[in-house]
Amino acid sequence: MTVIQQQDVIDSIADALQFISYYHPVDFIKAVHEAYEREESQAAKDAMAQILINSRMCAMGRRPLCQDTGIVNVFVKVGMNVQWQGDMSVTDMINEGVRRAYKHPDNVLRASVLADPDGARRNTGDNTPAVINYEIVLGDTVEVDVAAKGGGSEAKSKFAMLNPSDSVVDWVLEQLPKMGAGWCPPGMLGIGIGGTAEKAMLSAKESLMDSIDIQELQARGASNRAEELRLELYEKVNNLGIGAQGLGGLTTVLDVKVKDFPAHAANKAVALIPNCAATRHTHFILDGSGPAKQVPPSLDDWPEITWEVGDSVRRVNLDTVTSDDIKDWKPGETVLLSGKILTGRDAAHKRMIDMLAKGEELPVDMTGRFIYYVGPVDPVRDEVVGPAGPTTATRMDKFTRTMLEQTGLIGMIGKAERGPVAIEAIRDNEAVYLMAVGGAAYLVSKAITHAEVVAFEDLGMEAIYEFEIVDMPVTVAVDSRGESVHQTGPQIWKAKIEEHAIVIDR
Questions:
Q1: How far apart are CA 180 and CA 390, in angstroms?
Q2: What is the mean predicted confidence (pLDDT) over 81-105?
Q3: Distance between CA 485 and CA 467 in Å, rounded?
Q4: Which of 60, 117, 389, 496 is the most exposed place for a label (fewest CB within 10 A)?
Q5: Cβ–Cβ under 8 Å, residues 237 and 177
Q6: At what angle do helices 90-102 and 6-22 cross, to 10 degrees?
């Protein structure tokens, strides 16, 4: 009989969550580097360079890979010969580990979990509770998989109850373009097939705990239907040309995982869950000998990547830029921003829209200014601000027209594409939308030289800040005429990939 001590569970969970906040899995780093080396799209190559540079910086500085430090997912396999020693339930032990990890003074992690999700949406303050799944198995150990799942990628999850004769491949290929780039490709796709609705979703999520090994599978060949699907989808998804950050390119996914389960004869449940460029998961085993400790990778596992913007880059002073100036900016163009910007995301936008509807004056003058969709991590030590990468811009689409037409705002900065409603508002108001790279939050934070809360302090990480920035790299994603690089880029690269395939066939 193995005795598992309460403190060992708490310490192991806390250590694992701190570890995955700043260390990418080595298999992920190698896969991104290989994709970077073969990429032909300069925009996608630049995005992957920033992801790799950010990853190495986080490993060295032990700070979060992304400002969205995730909602905690835990898979626990409990051996039948295990006894627990403590005065807390196992769920409470795990949540105490989460609490300690997210409030660690040397590496504060952003608390993103809200209670009463359809009501008051009150932040729990410590990122609890975790989403925990248990399985009782033979043995005398406890095996634990821990992940911190970002909200942007989780929001792109898909589910369908297909007819038994329907094609899983066709369904997945139909969903991918609809998902946009808010899940921060390149990443992994987890696919669950069979069982019931909830089992398919669980299978998809659990499959993302596996390592990237698609190249090994390609080398040895498939031995079952799930592996056949992995190979087919890996090729066909990448042939869509969506590319890194949705900018168009050769690599959209680094791996595709498929996990299946027996199903009712009348059903074929299929779930699709993506993992983002801040892939964060690890595994440990408790055997009664003490807490499990994660082993840091060697910095030699990270490639030495440099990212040069070149002489042709447009440098912009946000303190003097005008609405006429931005009319010259071209989709896909790299811009380095300096000066002062405001921040604001979901809760701040909702409050501002409500104030405008009531005829109230906003607490901040936005005339001629840019707003950055971000919820930064709290700073530690001598930091001005913690990791401060962009959040998914489409969530602000429904607010965009009102913000542009009633506040004097002329530009927005966020992650991934904008939807039709926002693009029309941008075109009609001759504004501009700029994209920062999702998955490069620590790198972005180094461009911020001053940060101050200027409104809605009660919203915590969703408060309105004023940042002073120097040479913050962004891409023009939607220009003042409404042209979106997230529409044109993938179209161009899908055509190039198809043309290349035709040439090879000949």
A1: 15
A2: 98
A3: 26
A4: 117
A5: no
A6: 40
Kindly list the domain boundaries of the chain, sorted by start residue. 2-287, 314-489
What are the structure tokens assigned to 390, written together? Answer: 């962009």
Output the pLDDT for position 439: 85
- Name the pairing type of β-strands 411-414 and 370-372: parallel
Give the residue among 217, 241, 176 at the shortest CA–CA distance from 41: 241
Instruction: Check whether 319 has a pLDDT greater than 50.
Output: yes
Q: List 450's β-bridge partners, or say none.
A: 468
Give the model's pLDDT for residue 499.
Answer: 82
Nearest to 403 by CA among 438, 364, 456: 364
Architecture of domain 314-489: Alpha-Beta Barrel (3.20)
DSSP string, 212-233: P-HHHHHHH--SSHHHHHHHHH
Phi, psi of 206 (to 5 degrees): -65, -30
Helix segments in 372-484, DSSP class H: 397-407, 420-428, 441-445
**For tokens 């329907």, what's the residue?**
166
Whether residue 162 contacts residue 168, with contact meaning beta carbons closer than 8 Å, is answered with yes
Per-residue pLDDT for 504 more than 70? no
304's CB contacts (< 8 A; 6+ apart) are none
For residues 17 and 146, the answer to whether their CB atoms sit within 8 Å is: yes
Q: What is the pLDDT of residues 220-271, one digit of tens each?
A: 999 999 999 999 999 999 999 999 999 999 999 999 999 999 999 999 999 9
Query: Measuring CA to CA, which residue among 137, 153, 176, 5 is closest to residue 73?
Result: 153
Q: Give me the percent of the chain exceeding a pLDDT of 90.
A: 93
Tell me the two tokens of residue 394: 């489409």
Residue 505 has pLDDT above 60, yes or no: no
How long is the chain?
A: 506
Is residue 502 pLDDT above 50, yes or no?
A: no
Catalytic residue, candidates 349, 450, 486, 500 = 349
281 is catalytic: no
